[in-house]
Each structure stands twice: as C-alpha cells, then as structure tokens.
Amino acid sequence: MGLHRSTVAVLLLMMFILSSALDMSIVSYDEGHPDQSKSSWRTDDEVMAMYGEWLVKHGKAYNGLGEKERRFAIFRDNLKFIDEHNADDSHSFKVGLNRFADLTNEEYRAMYLGTKAPSSKVSKKSDRYAPRVGEELPASIDWRKKGAVTPVKDQGSCGGCWAFSATGAVEGINQIVTGDLISLSEQELVDCDTSYNEGCNGGLMDYAFEFIINNGGIDTEEDYPYKGRDGRCDSYRLKNAKVVRIDSYEDVPAYDENALKKALAYQPVSVSIEAGGRSFQFYTSGVFNGICGTQLDHGVLAVGYGTENGKDYWIVKNSWGDQWGESGYIRMERNLGNTATGKCGIAMEASYPIKRGQNPPHPGPSPPSPIKPPTVCDNYNSCPKSSTCCCSFEFYGYCFAWGCCPLEAAICCDDHYSCCPHDYPVCNLNQGTCLMSKGNPMAVKALRRTPAMPFWALETWAKRTVLK
To answer: Which residues partner with 326 through β-bridges?
Structure first.
C-alpha cells in the first residue's frame, strides 16, 4: 500500500514538472513572437479584404488552379511578419505590403537578386579615396540634389541589378564632368556584356565598367530601351551609338566605411550588399538596422550619406521601381563600430568609374538596324526575320507544315499552334500561358503561331514592307 502511494506521488510530481515546463515554453515563445500572445491577430475577413486590395493595386492575377489560395497563405504569413516587426520599437525602420507580399523569401531571392561573386576578379585597388589624417569631408551629401542621379528604374524579374548599379555610377560621373544627366542603357549591358556577366542571371559592376571602356562607350536608354529579359545583342547600335564614355574604373579601399564616405563625397558609387533578408524584402521607410550578413547578392548605387536623430546612414538607390522603400531608395545604417564590412557588406566591394573628358558629339537616335534575313525552316519555307520556326505537322520525323512564332529563340509548345518566350520556357497548355519554371507564379500569355511562307512569297512581303 505504501509502495502504491509513493508511486502515485512520484507520478503526480512528474506531471507537475512537465506542465510547468510546457507553461514556461509557451511564455518564452510569446515573448519572441508578440502576436501569438494575443487571443486574436487579424480576422480572416480582414486579411482577405487586404489581400483583395493588394491584388488590385499591384495588378496581380493568377492562372494556375489553386494558385490564388496558395498566394493568399503566403500573403497572410508575410502580413503577420510585417505587423510583428512594426510593433517592435527596437527597429529604426518600418516594413510594409509592397509588390513582394505574395512571394516567399526564397522566391524573392531567386527572382530579384543578381550580383554574382567572381571566381577570379582582377583587382583595381586604388588609394584615391583612402582617408587622410586631418581631412574634412561634408557632414552629408546627396547627389540627387546635385542633379547627378536619374529617376529610379525597375529591373523587373530580371536579375540585372548589376547593370543598373553600373549605369547609375556612369550616369553620375558623366553629369559631374559634363553637366549632362543622360539615362543609359541597361539592356545593352544585359544583351551584349556576356564575356563574364550573365545578363538576367547575374553579374558584377566592375565587368560592366570594363565592357563600356573596351566598347568605347554606351548607348542611351531611349535608343536601346530596357525589356526586362535577356535578348540578342543589337550589334549595330553597339558599334554606332557610343554616347557616354568613361576612361577607367577603380575599387574603393575595402572594409573601410570612411573610404566609402570619401568616395561618395566626390561621386555616386556602385556597391554590393546582402539584400536577401525578409526585412529588406519588405522595407518601406526609416534607417535600416535589420539583420543581414555579407553574402553579397545585390548590386545597388550609393548616392550619399547623412544623419537623422543621431543615426548615421547611407542613401542607396535600388532598381525595384519607386513603389519600393522610400520612393525607390533605402537608408542603411552607417558607422557600425563592431564591423569593418559596413551594413550588409556595403563597404566590401564598392567601385566607381573615372571620366576625364567630354563625350563625342551626340549622334542622335540610331537609324533602324540593317534588315535581317528571314528565318529558314526548310528548303521551301521561311519565317520573317527575328522569328522562330515551329513544326505544326510532323509525320515519321518529317515536318510537312511550319508555323512562325514572332520571337527569336522561342519555345514551340506541344499543341502545335502556340509558343513561348525563351525566358518563360514552360508551356501551360491548359491555361494558355508560359511560366518561368514549373509551378512558378510568374506567367505571360502564350503567343499564337502564323503559317510559314514559301521563299518567293516571303521575299515579296519583305519588299512591300520596305517600300511602305
């Protein structure tokens, strides 16, 4: 009997200890996740209403079955993160529902980041902007106010941030030297600078500077406009439209925020940062003091520095449109005493172009590129220039009917009458759309093929087109 009572007592004691431990774990979790301690967060109706407004504002529509519901779950989770962050007074910046609110952090990083660390990069070290004892620099500078920064641009879902950072730095030094602010062509870099850089799959600003130097200049954005995807290099414009030239480029002394500050006192500077964090993804305002490392994955443009309420910051121009951040900009914490890398690695790989003289006379808009020959399908049929031949009827390995997709390097879909751009290579036959990858929410409408023409008919059509 005594043994039985002692056993019961031990069991009761163990249950008490276990329940106490569970209570402690709940308290600990609530302290780390303030919204969980509340009996309610936001009602489903409230979140759904916000989701509907967000869809309208950003022009979002989903084609896949169940995709809207899946994106709502992601939106809800991101909204919860945003509310939780903004309720924490330890942050000196705010986050909000921007264009990325229906993307997981993994999707965001895959689609919008694009700086690639080179396997072997030629060093362009220079002491030009090395800090000197006793020298005085401006307490603040903003090259936007000096007319050396073009309006914020939007790279879209192309990972060409490196091209935007490079053109921004060249635009800046060109204005400082010549007095002319000229918006330059990122698409020319994406299409033509392919020796080391990889277009929408990433690149490095230093290689872009080298390309501009070796090419003898770069074209304007107006003449060689941005398309947001990889394309074929327009060699005619590459050779004949060299509007802005630079003479050289150099790297800012690494791991030294004072050196970066000195460089910025003289010109806008290309910088690489780690931008993959969730707080960076949803940044809307304030001095960014969020958690980030030094895995450099995004190219941006530093255009100044300043101080607000005792907090020093860098002024950084992004390339995600003017609806992100502070009208397209982010202010990043400056003068971090506990690291030499700067916030998010901003002081690790900064570089700038050098320009000593004026540009050649402005050639004006380029004339149309020379007429391209037709695309040959077989011995009898062809498609117009800059198009793709797709077999529409095949029998025993022979194609008896051809169709023309009005894009270069297009993907021919299996339904024999539609096609997709090469950067949206997955044909969704049920929805009539083209996807960037299987299960990816980014989709465009599939294109319809037109019948191919015999050689003699195409030649007649081409002559009529030229005469018009």
So the answer is: 329
pTM: 0.74
Average pLDDT over residues 260-270: 98
Helix or strand or coil: residue 112? helix
Pairing type for strands 283-288 and 329-333 reads parallel
**Active-site annotation holds for 289:** no
Q: What is the pLDDT of residues 89-106, one digit of tens each?
A: 999 999 999 999 999 999
Half-sphere exposure of 407 (CA within 13 A, CB side): 19
Pairing of strands 329-333, 248-251: unpaired
- Residue-wise pLDDT tens digits, 185-236: 999 999 999 999 999 999 999 999 999 999 999 999 999 999 999 999 998 9
The answer, yes or no, to whether residue 32 has pLDDT greater than 80, is no
Tell me the DSSP string of 356-401: -SPPPPP--SPPPPPPPPPEE-SSSEEE-TT-EEEEEEEETTEEEE
Q: Residue 76: CB partners within 8 Å, gap ≥ 6?
A: 47, 51
Tens-place pLDDT, residues 287-333: 999 999 999 999 999 999 999 999 999 999 999 999 999 999 999 99
The vertex-231 CA angle with 413 and 386, nearest 5°, equals: 65
**pLDDT of 122 higher than 90:** no
Residue of 135, 142, 126 whose CA lies nearest to 258: 135
Nearest to 302 by CA among 255, 234, 350, 254: 350
238 membership: H or E segment, kind and range: helix 235-240
161 is catalytic: yes
> Of 161, 419, 427, 434, which one is the catalytic site residue?
161
Verify whether residue 318 is a known catalytic residue: yes
**43: which 2 tokens?**
């009602």
Q: Which of 47-51, 83-87, 114-118 has the lowest mean pLDDT?
A: 114-118
Active-site choice (78, 98, 318, 381): 318
Rounded CA-CA distance 17/304 in Å is: 58
CA 131 to chain centre: 32
- Give the residues across from 313 on adjacent strands: 306, 333
Q: Say if residues 422 and 409 touch (Cβ distance below 8 Å).
A: yes
Catalytic residue among 78, 85, 292, 298: 298
Q: State the DSSP code for 125.
A: B
